[in-house]
């Protein structure tokens, strides 16, 4: 019987397969695939003990010959990929992935929500080890699937997936979610202070290391230290900790693994079958926490030094405090995972085709934008429902630069940020490319005239917002405040059927919310990309007076921005005056569907155009 309360597809119940019916070699290979784990075994002598705090963070790090040899060997194998077409390589490794069909099978048989590779990876950890629950990132859906007490909600990203459980998520007082901040850790402790005990902590964070992939382990070492210190600080006795790491060759990783072995009864390094065998990620699974009592003195020192460069200065422990029995087991584990990874890469290299000269790689990544440049995308409106009763303002630390956005491809943003960092100041003065489709300002105005019939111009200017090319990634609080002021003034003065031309880039939640407000106000919104040095422009046609209902709310948001700028909302919460801004005023669950598709197309066209100019400069 079909229930209108749910639209989820009914799970296909498959009969269990008799494993013994398969070829013994196949069975052995599958079991090996799902059993890539190495567990540390503590000596009965009790020599693995927490060092004295006086020895911590005092001595320089030392290289370990065998581990550095493994690192060099792995990097040499990875360097063989430098001439491969990235897209071809990804397609090839997907086709050779031994566990590649697991995700599709789970999706059809288990009815798991948003069944991704990350979801399956975390669920495999949950099923392999005796964890009570699991809730981090894309892994938050696993325990709700296995123990469906409440409505399952997948983790971020994208943000709208956590909207229904938002009160139970903590992003810090500045909404940055930066765990490498001592203040954030102490605030997190206060957030969970009413809980009887924390049973499981998981940490799967990382940084973008594409610029220096050979040193990925060293670059993320401080983050891993902070994540581990947070887990030891928050966990209750008997709790579990899951930490995503990569290679384990550096002295920093050696010290961290030793500390975890001293604090937990069982520590294993696990490579899930659903994690691609050719990458470096492994999961350190720690079970049965001994509690904070023994580690408290050392933990206090770690928290005092809680900072983004925690591991970049002195070593956590000197080499002489690491027992030989531990070093031997760690070297064996590293050799095992090194052999698995290099073997997989070597096997994939045997069959891959398609090479690309290194000099062409970056240039080719900027191709394909011309079609979007000449064409346009249209957002039809106005929206019938605005749900203004659900709108709320989130304030946080000022965004210095946009590194990630739900409204643009992350790879494109990374390329743009890298190109801007290396660009000369005069790159915006580069003349238009003769091979690029030309969209001049005159043609845009002619289109407005043809669609409106009799018309006249009115230039609306906020106190500071001028009709100049919009910043590539509008992040500064003054830019956004002035933009919103310009929109509010325009909506105040417009009559039914009027049109609005607005220079805009929409990489942040606030600027995306601004487009959402325009979507509520106009019959159609079209993206136009005038030829350089013009900015991307939104052509909004067919103003509807029903938009007046949102003008007071937008005015309140603008006023809130002004108060933040001059310090009228001063509290004892850091960051100080001038370093806070409005991050969101429309819930993320409303910024989806055709709006997201429109913004994605718009931002892709903007970024591709700018990359093209930067390459010419």
Automatic annotation (TrEMBL):
<dbReference type="GO" id="GO:0005634">
    <property type="term" value="C:nucleus"/>
</dbReference>
<dbReference type="InterPro" id="IPR025807">
    <property type="entry name" value="Adrift-typ_MeTrfase"/>
</dbReference>
<keyword id="KW-0808">Transferase</keyword>
<keyword id="KW-0949">S-adenosyl-L-methionine</keyword>
<protein>
    <recommendedName>
        <fullName>Cap-specific mRNA (nucleoside-2'-O-)-methyltransferase 2</fullName>
        <ecNumber>2.1.1.296</ecNumber>
    </recommendedName>
</protein>
<dbReference type="GO" id="GO:0120550">
    <property type="term" value="F:methyltransferase cap2 activity"/>
</dbReference>
<feature type="domain" description="Adrift-type SAM-dependent 2'-O-MTase">
    <location>
        <begin position="198"/>
        <end position="291"/>
    </location>
</feature>
<dbReference type="Pfam" id="PF01728">
    <property type="entry name" value="FtsJ"/>
</dbReference>
<feature type="binding site">
    <location>
        <position position="204"/>
    </location>
    <ligand>
        <name>S-adenosyl-L-methionine</name>
    </ligand>
</feature>
<dbReference type="GO" id="GO:0005737">
    <property type="term" value="C:cytoplasm"/>
</dbReference>
<keyword id="KW-0489">Methyltransferase</keyword>
<feature type="active site" description="Proton acceptor">
    <location>
        <position position="244"/>
    </location>
</feature>
<dbReference type="GO" id="GO:0004483">
    <property type="term" value="F:methyltransferase cap1 activity"/>
</dbReference>
<dbReference type="GO" id="GO:0006370">
    <property type="term" value="P:7-methylguanosine mRNA capping"/>
</dbReference>
<dbReference type="InterPro" id="IPR029063">
    <property type="entry name" value="SAM-dependent_MTases_sf"/>
</dbReference>
<keyword id="KW-0506">mRNA capping</keyword>
<keyword id="KW-0507">mRNA processing</keyword>
<dbReference type="InterPro" id="IPR050851">
    <property type="entry name" value="mRNA_Cap_2O-Ribose_MeTrfase"/>
</dbReference>
<dbReference type="GO" id="GO:0032259">
    <property type="term" value="P:methylation"/>
</dbReference>
<dbReference type="InterPro" id="IPR002877">
    <property type="entry name" value="RNA_MeTrfase_FtsJ_dom"/>
</dbReference>
């Amino acid at each position: 019987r079909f229930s209108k309360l749910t639209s989820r597809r009914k799970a296909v119940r498959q009969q269990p397969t008799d494993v013994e019916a398969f070829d013994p070699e196949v069975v052995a290979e599958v079991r090996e695939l799902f059993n890539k784990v190495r567990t540390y075994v503590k000596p009965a002598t009790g020599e693995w003990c927490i060092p004295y705090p006086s020895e911590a963070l005092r001595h320089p790090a030392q290289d370990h010959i065998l581990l550095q040899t493994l690192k060099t060997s792995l990097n040499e194998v990875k360097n063989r990929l430098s001439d491969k077409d990235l897209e071809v390589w990804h397609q090839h490794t997907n086709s050779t992935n031994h566990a590649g069909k697991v995700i599709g099978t789970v999706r059809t048989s288990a009815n798991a929500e948003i069944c991704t590779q990350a979801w399956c990876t975390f669920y495999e950890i949950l099923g392999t080890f005796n964890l009570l629950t699991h809730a981090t990132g894309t892994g938050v859906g696993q325990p709700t699937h296995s123990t469906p007490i409440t409505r399952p909600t997948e983790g971020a990203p994208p943000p709208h997936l956590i909207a229904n459980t938002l009160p139970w998520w903590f992003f810090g007082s500045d909404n940055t979610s930066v765990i490498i901040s001592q203040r954030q850790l102490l605030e997190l402790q206060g957030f969970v202070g009413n809980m009887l005990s924390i049973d499981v902590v998981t940490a799967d964070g990382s940084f973008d290391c594409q610029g220096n992939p050979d040193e990925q382990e060293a670059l993320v070492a401080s983050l891993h230290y902070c994540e581990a210190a947070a887990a030891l600080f928050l966990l209750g006795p008997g709790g579990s900790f899951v930490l995503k790491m990569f290679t384990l060759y550096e002295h920093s990783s050696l010290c961290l693994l030793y500390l975890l072995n001293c604090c937990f009864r069982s520590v294993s390094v696990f490579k899930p079958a659903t994690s691609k065998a050719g990458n470096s990620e492994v999961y350190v699974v720690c079970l049965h926490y001994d509690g904070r009592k023994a580690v408290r003195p050392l933990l206090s020192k770690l928290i005092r030094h809680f900072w983004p460069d925690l591991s970049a200065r002195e070593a956590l422990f000197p080499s002489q405090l690491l027992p030989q029995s531990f070093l031997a087991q760690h070297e064996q584990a590293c050799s095992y995972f090194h052999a698995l990874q290099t073997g997989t890469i070597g096997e994939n290299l045997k069959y891959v085709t398609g090479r690309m000269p290194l000099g062409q790689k970056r240039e080719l990544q900027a191709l394909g934008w011309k079609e979007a440049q000449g064409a346009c995308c249209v957002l039809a409106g106005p929206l019938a429902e605005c749900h203004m009763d659900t709108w709320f303002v989130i304030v946080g630390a000022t965004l210095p630069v946009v590194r990630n956005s739900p409204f643009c491809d992350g790879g494109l943003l990374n390329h743009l940020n890298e190109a801007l960092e290396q660009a000369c100041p005069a790159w915006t003065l580069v003349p238009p490319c003769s091979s690029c489709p030309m969209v001049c300002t005159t043609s845009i105005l002619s289109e407005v005239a043809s669609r409106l019939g009799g018309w006249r111009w009115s230039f609306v200017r906020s106190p500071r917002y001028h009709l100049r090319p919009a910043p590539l990634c509008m992040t500064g609080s003054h830019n956004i405040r002035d933009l919103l002021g310009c929109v509010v003034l325009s909506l105040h003065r417009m009559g039914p059927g009027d049109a609005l031309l607005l220079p805009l880039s929409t990489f942040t939640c606030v600027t995306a919310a601004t487009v959402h407000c325009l979507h509520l106000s106009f019959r159609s919104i079209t993206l136009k990309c005038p030829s350089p040095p013009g900015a991307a422009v939104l052509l909004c046609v067919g103003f509807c007076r029903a938009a007046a209902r949102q003008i007071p709310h937008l005015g309140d948001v603008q006023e809130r921005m002004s108060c933040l700028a001059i310090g009228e909302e001063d509290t004892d919460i850091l960051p100080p005056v001038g370093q806070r801004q409005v991050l969101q005023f429309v819930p993320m669950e409303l910024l989806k569907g055709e709006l997201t598709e429109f913004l994605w197309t718009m931002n892709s066209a903007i970024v591709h155009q700018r990359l093209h100019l930067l390459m010419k400069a």
